[in-house]
Each structure stands twice: as structure tokens, then as C-alpha cells.
């Protein structure tokens, strides 16, 4: 999950945090180390996870499958644990790990602490993270024990886990790459410190981030090849692999976008979800092309119509959720999640402030074109 956080936020059950150990060792390549990831999202393929270990010795805790009986991290059994600085902090989210929006932000709270955090053979001896002791019930339905931020480099004294690895010389390059192919369950891959060129066709096409985060300039959206009317498609697009949907900057933009696609798509949840009868939604689903990147190096990147329907909406039999949510209040930017990112191989370079896009070998339906 890519988030612009300087700490590892691990949300878990009542008293503490649980974290598993990767059972499959990292596979070294000439350019990076590959970590297997698994699709868990029970309605589509828009969320993936792996497992980590925390503490010394590492506590071998099982990956959650029902989320009602998580095993907990016991800090008293870790020789490397530090309860410093002990500052209390809260993390709030507008959705859980799926595409269903919350009516009000939900989250977890706990103490900021330090301990050894490892993913396979890669570890940070003293990583800052949020050890949660309180959490919202809405988070308990997720088959994950926490969130590990992999945002861009921070100028502060505390870095995200990935950038501590890089600063420690454990990685060859300041790049992490995602391969989360549509329709696959067990074939996903995160590459730390490089690129796995067996997963895409030809070369990567790079475009520069704007601002201080993983944000791209957005100049247009094409709906079946026709531009979204007005200027509502222009602005900034924030990229986040941890988001299982797409989000418009405001309700007004969502209304205009769906009006251009089909009048049969309406808001189905006051929290921001839109949809229609499932067969109707499939019939009106369009190909959506986003023009992302600065002028001169912008790319046309497409979500095929097959990814427009996010599945039947909970509590509304026969009604399916469409691709875009709207925020509860004006957000000011587009939020680009896994429905677009999974269509491509993506290489995130936080130091050189750019992202590379590759056409998947397994599925060539989403092409890359120069704008």
C-alpha cells in the first residue's frame, strides 16, 4: 500500500498489533528483490497484501483470514522493542481496504514506538510505527493486520520503512515496483529496490511527479474516446495502490462524469458511492482513458470497461457499484487507485520523482500512448 506516511501504521485488535512472517523467501534478481503479494478483495481484484515480521525474535503470527481472531504482537517478548517516544496518535481513513466509503472517517489510535520490522530478508533494526490499541469496528472486517506506508522520501528524522532500507544500503536503487495483474489471485509481486523486466512488454514509459508526493498532473479524461466536458477533468491526480476505487475531486464532478456516461447511474450511498442494476452497469460501462503527466511527456492510460463494475453493493441486492466514488467534501484532486494502477506494471522512483508505466505481458488490453 503506497501512502505518504513517515511511519508504519499497524492497525489491529484490542490491545496491540499483529503481523505475520513471509513464508516464501525473497528472490534476488539483478535489479531488486521480489516479494509475493496475494489478492484478497472479496469482490474484485483491487487489493493485495503480503506479510511482515515485527520484533526480535520475529513473532511468527498467522495472516488473518477471518479477522475475528487476530494473534497479537507482544512487545514484552521483543528484545529490540522501544516504547519511545510514546506519543499518542490517530490515523483516520475514508474507506476500509475495499471500495465501500464510510459515512464518517474511521480509524485507529495508539502509541508511536520503535522495533525491528522485516519483510523476508530485508529488515530495519529500529523502525518507527504506530502500535494501535484502539480501532474502529469497520476495520476489523479486513483480512490484514496493518498498513505499511511506502510514500516518497521524507526530509524529517523519521523515514518510512522502505527509505530506511535504502539509506542503509540494502537496496540497489530508490525504486519499488508493483505487478498486480487483473484477474489474478496469487501472481502479484512487489519488487523492492528495482524492476522485474519479465513482467512487462518493451520498455517503461516515465512521467514526472508534480509537487512533493506521488501526484501527477491530469489534463483530460476520455470516455469511450470523448473528452469529459468542461474543465472538471483537469487538475491533479494522487496515485495510491492502497485505494480500491477511483475518486473524483467533488460530488459535482462525479455527477457530471456519470451524466456523460449514463443517466441510469445514480448515487447509491450518501457516503459517496454510485451505481446501477448490475446488468445495466455492465451494459453502459465505458473505456476510460486518463491523460496524466506534464505537458510534453503526458501519457494516455486506460481502464477498460471490464473494470468499471466494482461488484454488488453490500445491503443492496442486484445493485452494483460503479468505478468512481465522490468525497464527502470537496477533495480538490482526483484519487487514482488500483483500478487504473493494476492495468500496468508501475515503477515508483521517489528520489528522481517519476513513475514508469509498462504494458503487462499477461494482458495487453491496456495500452500506453503518448498524449
Automatic annotation (TrEMBL):
Residues 48-358 form the Peptidase A1 domain. It holds the Pfam family Asp. One of its GO terms (cellular component) is fungal-type vacuole. One of its GO terms (molecular function) is aspartic-type endopeptidase activity. One of its GO terms (biological process) is proteolysis. Residues 1-19 form the signal peptide. SUPFAM superfamilies: Acid proteases. It comes from the Eukaryota. PROSITE patterns: PEPTIDASE_A1. InterPro entries: Aspartic_peptidase_A1, Pepsin-like_dom, PEPTIDASE_A1, Peptidase_aspartic_dom_sf. Keywords: Signal. Belongs to the peptidase A1 family. This is Peptidase A1 domain-containing protein.
Amino acid at each position: 500500500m503506497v501512502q505518504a506516511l513517515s511511519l508504519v501504521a499497524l492497525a489491529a485488535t484490542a490491545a496491540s498489533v499483529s503481523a505475520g512472517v513471509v513464508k516464501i523467501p525473497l528472490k534476488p534478481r539483478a535489479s531488486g528483490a521480489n516479494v509475493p503479494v496475494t489478492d484478497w478483495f472479496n469482490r474484485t481484484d483491487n487489493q493485495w497484501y503480503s506479510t511482515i515480521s515485527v520484533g526480535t525474535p520475529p513473532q511468527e503470527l498467522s495472516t488473518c483470514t477471518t479477522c475475528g481472531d487476530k494473534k497479537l504482537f507482544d512487545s514484552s517478548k521483543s528484545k529490540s522493542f522501544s516504547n519511545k517516544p510514546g506519543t499518542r496518535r490517530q490515523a483516520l481513513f475514508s474507506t476500509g481496504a475495499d471500495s465501500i466509503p464510510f459515512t464518517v472517517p474511521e480509524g485507529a489510535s495508539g502509541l508511536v514506538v520503535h522495533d525491528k520490522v522485516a519483510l523476508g530478508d530485508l529488515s530495519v533494526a529500529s523502525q518507527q510505527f504506530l502500535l494501535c490499541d484502539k480501532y474502529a469496528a469497520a476495520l476489523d472486517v479486513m483480512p490484514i493486520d496493518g498498513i505499511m506506508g511506502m510514500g516518497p522520501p521524507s526530509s524529517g528524522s523519521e523515514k518510512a520503512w522502505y527509505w530506511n532500507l535504502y539509506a542503509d544500503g540494502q537496496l540497489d536503487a530508490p525504486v519499488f515496483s508493483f505487478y498486480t495483474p487483473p484477474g489474478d489471485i496469487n501472481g502479484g509481486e512487489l519488487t523492492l529496490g528495482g524492476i522485474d523486466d519479465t513482467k512487462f512488454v518493451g520498455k517503461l514509459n516515465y512521467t514526472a511527479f508534480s509537487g512533493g508526493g506521488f501526484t501527477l498532473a491530469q489534463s483530460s479524461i476520455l470516455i469511450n474516446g470523448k473528452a469529459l466536458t468542461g474543465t472538471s477533468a483537469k487538475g491533479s491526480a494522487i496515485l495510491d495502490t492502497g485505494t480500491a476505487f477511483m475518486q473524483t475531486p467533488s460530488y459535482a464532478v462525479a455527477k457530471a462524469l456519470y451524466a456523460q456516461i449514463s443517466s441510469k447511474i445514480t448515487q447509491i450511498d450518501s457516503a459517496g458511492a454510485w451505481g446501477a442494476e448490475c446488468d445495466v452497469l455492465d451494459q453502459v460501462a465505458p473505456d476510460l482513458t486518463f491523460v496524466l503527466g506534464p505537458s510534453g511527456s503526458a501519457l494516455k492510460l486506460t481502464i477498460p470497461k471490464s473494470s468499471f463494475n466494482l461488484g454488488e453493493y453490500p445491503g443492496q441486492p442486484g445493485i452494483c457499484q460503479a468505478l468512481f466514488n465522490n468525497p464527502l467534501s470537496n477533495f480538490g484532486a482526483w484519487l487514482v487507485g488500483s483500478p487504473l494502477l493494476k492495468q500496468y506494471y508501475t515503477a515508483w522512483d521517489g528520489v528522481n520523482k517519476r513513475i514508469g508505466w509498462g504494458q503487462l505481458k499477461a494482458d495487453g488490453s491496456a495500452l500506453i500512448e503518448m498524449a
